Amino acid sequence: xxxxxxxxxxxxxxxxxxxxxxxxxxxxxxxxxxxxxxxxxxxxxxxxxxxxxxxxxxxxxxxxxxxxxxxxxxxxxxxxxxxxxxxxxxxxxxxxxxxxxxxxxxxxxxxxxxxxxxxxxxxxxxxxxxxxxxxxxxxxxxxxxxxxxxxxxxxxxxxxxxxxxxxxxxxxxxxxxxxxxxxxxxxxxxxxxxxxxxxxxxxxxxxxxxxxxxxxxxxxxxxxxxxxxxxxxxxxxxxxxxxxxxxxxxxxxxxxxxxxxxxxxxxxxxxxxxxxxxxxxxxxxxxxxxxxxxxxxxxxxxxxxxxxxxxxxxxxxxxxxxxxxxxxxxxxxxxxxxxxxxxxxxxxxxxxxxxxxxxxxxxxxxxxxxxxxxxxxxxxxxxxxxxxxxxxxxxxxxxxxxxxxxxxx
Length: 409
What we know:
Blueprint: E1 2-3, E2 13-14, E3 25-26, E4 40-45, E5 54-56, E6 59-66, E7 71-78, E8 84-91, E9 106-107, E10 112-115, E11 120-124, E12 131-136, H1 137-141, E13 155-157, E14 160-163, E15 170-176, E16 182-187, E17 200-204, E18 207-213, E19 216-222, E20 231-237, E21 247-248, E22 253-258, E23 263-272, E24 275-283, E25 297-299, E26 302-306, E27 318-322, E28 325-332, E29 344-347, E30 350-354, E31 359-365, E32 370-377, E33 389-391, E34 394-398, E35 402-407
Parallel strand pairs: 3-29
Antiparallel strand pairs: 1-8, 2-5, 4-35, 5-6, 6-7, 7-8, 9-10, 10-11, 11-12, 13-14, 14-15, 15-16, 17-18, 18-19, 19-20, 21-22, 22-23, 23-24, 25-26, 26-27, 27-28, 29-30, 30-31, 31-32, 33-34, 34-35
């Protein structure tokens, strides 16, 4: 561990997977100038991987993998300069499998928590990097880590860390952020397995619910104090690989997507006097809204996605659907605008999309069309799959080996 004194002046936050409100939508600090290329503020080298950054009050947090040390490494950088402030690591030997790290840290004023590729959880002080506690999910819960390593991003809800071990006996668990103590557990009577997806908090049927897309099915677990951890409903779903997370469309409907031919589904959840039901309307990837890796965005009554490679004529395109009709597109990008497994996010009313070879596209999405505003080659990238992050006018993106920071407003 090494530590450098640093007093940032910035206060913007992108504190975890999909940002502050988990919608993957950011509010710009000023007007974005599209007339010239966005300047690159800094670049850092990383181990091979797809882990994405979190940003909190001028600090950038990234879970990297150091092959020389055979270690997961939580690295903290200055958002303004890219100077590394500290790093905290632990040894976990493993072999490369399309890279190593894949997740986004979760950060608050008191904690930064990571979920490593072999399902090790680590909690540190976000300013100094001082270790608070660690937890071996794979060992404790007898979890089978999915192919291509764990992709589940940690979720901090209040003073609790919410994870889905999907192990031998425990499906989901709440952990005290201060001590690492397990506070509650949801039994895994269903026998579901860990996927690459992340737990998403939603309010469905008037009840706070943690929704998780496991291998084997989708579950809703109570997030309310009176019965926290109680399994409310579940529905079986066959994909053997699940990377995107569930996307809430309304107070009763959730969109599900997965790659490798799985396509998508509309999940309808109902609560009738405490009796829960969940029903699924499934379709193939060439029949409606789907995604292989990234979680779609719900924005201005549009569900925006990049279609998977088995999406027929729409494969790789940026496509929008109405949340009331996930089968008929509202609009699609041009034939030569295809993005592979690249990420996308909204900054204000503009959609930033990174093609997985490192070219950045910016669109103005509207109900019947998306206007291409600009495109810029950022890098000659290799597998630029990691989600982007935005705060204080800085946009952070990456490919398999480098992290780039752009100043966009």
